[in-house]
Amino acid sequence: MENPSLKDHVKELYDGEIVLLNQPERESASQLDVLMLVMVPAPMNKTVKTLQGQATGDDTSGTLANGEFKASTPDALDQVLAPVMFANDEMPEVEKLLTIDAGDTYNFSRDEIKMIRERAKNLSDAEKDGPAALQAMSKVMRDVLKGRYLAYQKEGMAGLAPYQFSSTKQVDPAAELITATEDLHLVKERFPDYHACLRYYPVKSLPRLVHRYFWVKQRESDRPLFVLKHWILDIQSDYALITERRFYLNHSLSSLQIVIGCLPHDDHTLVVLLNQAFTEKVNMKIGQTIAKAIGHREVEKNIRPIFENLRSALSGNP
Length: 318
Prior knowledge:
Blueprint: H1 10-14, E1 19-22, E2 31-40, H2 44-53, E3 63-69, H3 74-81, H4 91-98, H5 110-121, H6 131-155, E4 163-164, E5 170-171, H7 173-182, H8 185-190, H9 192-200, E6 210-220, E7 223-235, E8 240-249, E9 255-265, E10 268-278, H10 288-314
Antiparallel strand pairs: 1-2, 2-10, 3-6, 4-5, 6-7, 7-8, 8-9, 9-10
Helix pairs in contact: 2-10, 4-6, 5-6
């Protein structure tokens, strides 16, 4: 059965409900597309300001820590990444890192796996189940995030190293994100300059665009998840475009790109969110249809809080 058209959901939108539309006809074997809409009872400037307040993930369920990159000097990077660490009750995660090998448990490149193994070898057997191991693997995560951030700053999506899932299999987040960006046909048609900046960052940009960069530590599948985000904002009087590109996740999804459009509508704002997620984990032996359903639930779990928090923050505002 085909998805109902947007006009079939007008009443739901005005009732403040979140409308979710999947787009299976646009999906590839490992791509999950979700379209989500909500009408909030607030002017666009207030809506956009509230969305920006969520950029660090402070209001997102499961967020444990976060920080914003505002400079790329070595000292500034070390300072902003200083809170990146594993907690005492996350020792099982540290133990996995100490015995890491190529696989889909983590999203690490071949060189990152080599670095982690070398750091683990420097620990004595007695140190591997105590504070020294926690500190060493926390430093590993800081170094991985720092390297990934600098590579993205220098080369954009093309600078993202592939994940090593086996001795021969790699997953390429750069190719995934490039595909996702190329697939934004409506943005490319209506806002070609903005689309060019998304596609060819950092080579192309516009003076009016705002770029913000964050790291976030969340809880995902009862595991600590470290994420790097790039926000690209184009805020005008009659529309706003916000792209959240999660260009690195140390496990879970391979990559994630969320494009949010805000349009004023009388004294309300229509907020439209297009989520494009990639994961090799939808290709499971249980069957593609079931795997896709599981994947969509995981994606929705990641993005629905954006709208729920927005609706809650603005409910009843004039």
